[in-house]
Amino acid sequence: MRPFELTAPETVDTAVSAPGTFLAGGTTLVDLMKLDVLTPESVQDINSLPLRGIETSGELRIGALERMADVAEHPGVHPVISRALLLSASQQLRNMASIGGNLLQRTRCTYFRDTAMPCNRREPGSGCSAIDGANRMHAILGTSDSCVATHASDLAVALVALDAEVRLVGESGERTVALTDFYRRPGETPEVEHELRDGELISEVVVPELDFAANSTYVKVRDRQSYEFALTSAAAALDVRDGVVADVRLAAGGVATVPWRLSAVEDALRGGPATTEAFEAAAERAVEDAKPLAHNGFKVSLLKRTIVRALLELTEGSGQ
Known about the structure:
Enolase-like, domain 1, five-stranded antiparallel sheet
């Protein structure tokens, strides 16, 4: 790790007006600094800033500095969010990692973390080693000729499914961005991963009211049961009335360069029967634009099965 200057601003205004990389839980930043993937000259410890709090009446509001463990265990947090957090990491990491930091975590692509290998996210124009390399864990959706790295956050998948927004604060004031618009697909500029401007902070996550969010879940398929990133995942909230899908929210993780909203699958499900056969038919829409690589073609069928499993989890045994 290279030398850096550490400061601890006491106000949000001070933090956003000073140069430096922000440090909250540090569970991603410190690792990348140790690897020399990130080499900031100045780091701001923002843990004393007033960016905490969880409100569950009406819309759900979560302060950016809330810890993952606290949010997961908080009464009134939607099951899909709680489950995504509990499946994200070890208890020790959940105790440290912040909500804002989780949403901004960098890809777990091994080539991004290996400074000896070309990586367009780390060094624009150097190339993407994963396209012709070991790409079993990589994306099949939202990719480009410049990058095929998957987005790492489980929480972001759940929040995208629920139409969440992030509140951002910077020197020019506050603004709100839908999470589906916040993340950027790699295109020709994979080093630009989101819409956060220089000096801006995520201050809060806001999830609008959804009357059927209580009937929601997060299914994560991975190589081992504990502390592993997703091969595929599905966040689902389902409203079934008299055996018919009245409404649904779906998003996928582990398969795309950004948290992937499954709008086409939602459209195929609404108004149809809540049956295994209907779920399987709708899940086909999830992979219409898939571009599998040499080692991750299995994700096409696995994603479909993951979606169906999530939907069945919300219907079987519920009397719906």
